[in-house]
Recover the amino acids of this structure.
């Protein structure tokens, strides 16, 4: 598309009564600390070197997060050519005794489910990441363990199913932990996690709301959860919980010892007992990015998380030519007062994509361009064909930054439902028009 539209004539966030020009437009500047790194310190976190590496998930809380908010971020790295859509599902009530078909198996349906917005591969029922109307946000990671690897080929619940189920049924982060672990113990986890049927793994999760976060890690039916009340945390493709955890599967230590995963001496470490592999450099990279940008007092916000997700040198951000490109990204800003906002790309490579804002409200609308038809979305198709010139990228970044400024005002001051209903829809369709 020929770019002949002035910045001031395009309005991606038509939600505030005040003209867009009333808000300052500024190019994003980080906190001044270096984001990209040439070397990463080796950590004790392990993963097998022959397994694919994909996805990174982050959460930042007070005192680092600005305005006492909670900031979540995830890059979803998936196989080449796999399209990710953003779907909204309203809350619903269900008949007693009814079932729900997940990706591979049917399970008992809940009496009621919450409204959710999900970033999901088009071929599966579950989701890579998403949020619900209560401000609960979940993202998962593939982890590779020594526990029952052969059982992973049996079709049960996959980690992405558990993400969606936790959001549909969890009123808080703590409740979502209970939902996921209860279903894990009842139905198990397993089945192909790629459309090609060649990817199998156990799962870890970051689960958060506007008060706290949990890191939940699993090894088949074994699990442990660590509560995060302040500061920051990240996960990647490795177990990270060692001796310090707040919740666990029943008789975890005794069962791990009986199964031969722990010899019973010294402090029990979940990661040491169940991990299978070498050091995970991207977990170390993500941790360093957080240390560089979330160590201040109350400065970390949506722009900082977006910058982390766009960091190429650390390989947190993966381009479309990578074996497992970043196929979709999400940033959520959870406020203790009023609205929270969930930003989705719905397109590959966040450094070449636009984060678009979704706020739960009565009658909220989605865009047809970010929902799949015939295995793909029109936004994905036109994004892939577009000439992502420096001029186009600069224009879209400026629009994105204006939108971020407006949304920050909404999180501070509130807005009427009618001002928010078409927010995400309009942002998607504005981006689509630039590529068309």
């Amino acid at each position: 598309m020929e770019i002949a539209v002035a910045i001031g004539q395009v309005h991606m966030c038509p939600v505030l009564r005040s003209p867009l020009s009333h808000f300052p437009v500024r190019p994003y500047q980080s906190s001044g600390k270096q984001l990209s790194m040439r070397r990463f310190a080796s950590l004790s976190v392990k993963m097998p070197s022959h397994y694919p590496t994909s996805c990174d998930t982050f959460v930042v809380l007070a005192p680092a997060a600005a305005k006492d908010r909670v900031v979540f971020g995830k890059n979803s790295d998936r196989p080449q050519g796999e399209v990710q859509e953003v779907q909204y599902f309203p809350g619903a009530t269900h008949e007693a005794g009814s079932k729900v078909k997940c990706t591979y198996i049917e399970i008992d349906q809940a009496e009621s489910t919450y409204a959710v917005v999900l970033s999901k591969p088009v071929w599966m029922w579950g989701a890579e990441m998403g949020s619900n109307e209560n401000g609960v946000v979940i993202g998962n990671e593939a982890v590779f363990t020594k526990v029952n690897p052969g059982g992973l080929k049996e079709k049960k619940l996959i980690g992405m199913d558990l993400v969606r189920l936790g959001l549909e049924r969890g009123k808080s982060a703590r409740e979502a932990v209970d939902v996921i672990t209860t279903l894990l113990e009842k139905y198990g986890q397993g089945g192909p996690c790629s459309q090609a049927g060649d990817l199998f793994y156990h799962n870890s999760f970051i689960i958060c709301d506007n008060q706290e976060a949990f890191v939940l890690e699993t090894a088949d039916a074994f699990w442990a959860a660590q509560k995060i009340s302040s500061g920051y945390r990240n996960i990647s493709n490795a177990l990270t919980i060692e001796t310090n955890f707040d919740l666990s599967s029943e008789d975890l230590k005794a069962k791990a010892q009986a199964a031969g995963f722990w010899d019973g001496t010294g402090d029990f470490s979940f990661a040491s007992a169940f991990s299978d592999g070498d050091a995970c450099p991207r977990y170390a990279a993500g941790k360093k990015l957080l240390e560089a940008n979330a160590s201040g007092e109350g400065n970390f916000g949506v722009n900082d998380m977006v910058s982390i997700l766009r960091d190429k040198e650390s390989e947190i951000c993966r381009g479309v030519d990578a074996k497992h490109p970043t196929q979709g990204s999400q940033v959520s800003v959870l406020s203790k007062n009023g609205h929270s906002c969930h930003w989705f790309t719905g397109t590959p490579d966040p450094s070449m994509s636009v984060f678009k804002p979704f706020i739960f409200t009565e009658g909220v609308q989605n865009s047809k361009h970010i929902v799949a038809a015939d295995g793909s979305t029109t936004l994905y198709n036109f994004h892939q064909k577009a000439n992502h010139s420096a001029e186009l990228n600069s224009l879209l970044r400026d629009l994105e930054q204006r939108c971020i400024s407006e949304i920050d005002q909404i999180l501070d001051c509130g807005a009427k439902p009618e001002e928010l209903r078409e927010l995400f829809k309009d942002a998607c369709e504005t981006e689509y028009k630039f590529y068309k």
Summary: The longest helix spans residues 390-413. Residues 33-278 form a domain with the Penicillin V Acylase; Chain A fold (CATH 3.60.60).
